[in-house]
């Protein structure tokens, strides 16, 4: 599996699939942090040790398969251009932190892009597994199976009392972050989200933007994940998150119904204005594009806009990011050039729906 395979398409193959509650929940993710025993964690390890781990994964897993996840590709971060790194970040296949790492950083990515393994990031191993829609339990089961698959050849750093040992104390224990990506435009429009976020934080969960910690919730997309990893089982953590997400789904659906009942003309006007901007703009900045795409996705989900695919939001949210725009253009672009190309690509994509 070559690097170009992961660069060619803005949308990962699994994102084209429908999942439970996919009108609101875009994806479910399980991330597991693991480290080699008898090797210093990346923050303290010498370059030789990290290079050995790099070479181990390249030798043992490049072009290998796991169940229905075919042909893993090994990507050395040091071999990537800045634009290629940015594209992988925009597709959520690697983290911004891994993209900034030194010589021994790498990623192992399945052909369908459901599984990616970040190597020598904050920990030696960070497994990410994605499913479309609201499928946390299925993602958890599959992550356990893949974790066991790696553990056949890797001796993990593990303590009987503390659990899995990690670079950051907040990951010690299960080493797990469970998260869902949610599209919550109605809760934003009705301003209910402002009082919900503090309540969610008090339950030991955290609400972030589309690219995780420190990122902004552009396009009304929020990432909800657990904060506590120590003293609780993985299943308990997932059940707590599922309970909160289910309530958010219900609140979002109720807010959408109220918007339709109480201000349908105003809502339709907002949606069609955004659709018009996307269809006819010759220059558009990323934040405006994200806002308009969110409105159009809401219009599709409510049946106001017909004959447009629901995954247009997923696809264009990646396609219109700076890294992918420059990958598409095959050159570095100024901000103004990106805004012009972004508008052009959006118009072309909408035209395909007609």
UniProtKB/TrEMBL annotation:
Does the keyword field hold Nucleus? no
Enumerate the residues binding ATP: 27-31, 92, 126, 177-181, 208-213
Reaction catalysed by this enzyme: L-arginyl-[protein] + ATP = N(omega)-phospho-L-arginyl-[protein] + ADP + H(+)
Question: According to the UniProt entry, what is the EC number of this protein?
Answer: 2.7.14.1
Domain Phosphagen kinase C-terminal: start-end pairs: 24-255
Q: Report keywords, A-Z.
A: Allosteric enzyme, ATP-binding, Kinase, Nucleotide-binding, Transferase
For the motif RDXXRA motif of the pArg binding pocket involved in allosteric regulation, what are the positions?
Answer: 338-343
The answer on whether this UniProt entry bears the keyword Kinase reads yes
Activity regulation (UniProt): Appears to be allosterically activated by the binding of pArg-containing polypeptides to the pArg-binding pocket localized in the C-terminal domain of McsB.
Q: Which GO MF terms are attached to this record?
A: protein arginine kinase activity
Q: Which SUPFAM superfamilies does the entry mention?
A: Glutamine synthetase/guanido kinase (SSF55931)
Show the stretches that span the lipid bilayer. none
Q: Which domain of life is it from?
A: Bacteria
Spell out the PROSITE patterns in the cross-references. PHOSPHAGEN_KINASE, PHOSPHAGEN_KINASE_C
InterPro entries in the record, alphabetically? Arg_Kinase, ATP-guanido_PTrfase, ATP-guanido_PTrfase_AS, ATP-guanido_PTrfase_cat, Gln_synth/guanido_kin_cat_dom
The entry's family comment says: Belongs to the ATP:guanido phosphotransferase family.
Check the record and name the PANTHER family matching this protein: ARGININE KINASE 1-RELATED, ARGININE OR CREATINE KINASE
Instruction: State what this protein does.
Output: Catalyzes the specific phosphorylation of arginine residues in a large number of proteins. Is part of the bacterial stress response system. Protein arginine phosphorylation has a physiologically important role and is involved in the regulation of many critical cellular processes, such as protein homeostasis, motility, competence, and stringent and stress responses, by regulating gene expression and protein activity.
Question: What name does this protein carry?
Answer: Protein-arginine kinase
| Provenance organism | Virgibacillus byunsanensis
């Amino acid at each position: 599996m070559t690097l170009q395979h992961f660069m060619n398409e803005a949308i990962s193959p699994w994102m084209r699939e429908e999942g439970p509650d996919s009108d609101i929940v875009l994806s479910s993710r399980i991330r597991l942090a693991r480290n080699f025993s008898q090797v210093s964690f990346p923050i303290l390890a010498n370059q030789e040790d990290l290079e050995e781990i790099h070479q181990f994964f390249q030798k043992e897993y490049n072009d290998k398969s796991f169940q229905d996840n075919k042909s893993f590709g090994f990507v050395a971060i040091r071999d990537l251009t800045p634009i290629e790194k940015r594209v992988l970040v925009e597709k959520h296949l690697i983290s911004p932190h891994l993209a900034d790492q030194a010589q021994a950083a790498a990623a192992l990515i399945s052909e369908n892009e459901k599984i990616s393994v970040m190597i020598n990031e904050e920990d030696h191993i960070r497994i990410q597994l994605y499913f479309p829609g609201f499928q946390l339990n299925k993602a958890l089961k599959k992550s356990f199976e893949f974790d066991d698959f790696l553990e056949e050849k890797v001796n993990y750093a593990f303590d009987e009392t503390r659990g899995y040992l990690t670079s950051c104390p907040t990951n010690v224990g299960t080493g797990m972050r469970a998260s869902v990506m949610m599209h919550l435009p109605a809760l934003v429009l009705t301003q209910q989200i402002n009082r919900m976020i503090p309540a969610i934080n008090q339950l030991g969960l955290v609400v972030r933007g589309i690219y995780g910690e420190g990122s902004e919730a552009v396009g009304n997309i929020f990432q909800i994940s657990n904060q506590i990893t120590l003293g609780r089982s993985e299943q308990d953590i997932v059940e707590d998150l599922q309970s909160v997400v289910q309530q958010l789904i219900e609140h979002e659906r109720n807010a959408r119904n109220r918007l339709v009942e109480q201000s349908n003309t105003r809502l339709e006007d907002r949606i069609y204005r955004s659709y018009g901007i996307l269809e006819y703009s010759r220059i558009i900045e990323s934040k405006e594009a994200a806002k308009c795409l969110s409105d159009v996705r809401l219009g599709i989900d409510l049946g106001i806009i017909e004959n447009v695919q629901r995954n247009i939001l997923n696809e264009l949210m990646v396609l219109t990011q700076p890294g992918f725009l420059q990958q598409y253009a095959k050159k570095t672009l100024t901000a103004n050039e990106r805004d012009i190309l972004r508008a052009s690509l959006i118009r072309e994509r909408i035209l395909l729906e007609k």
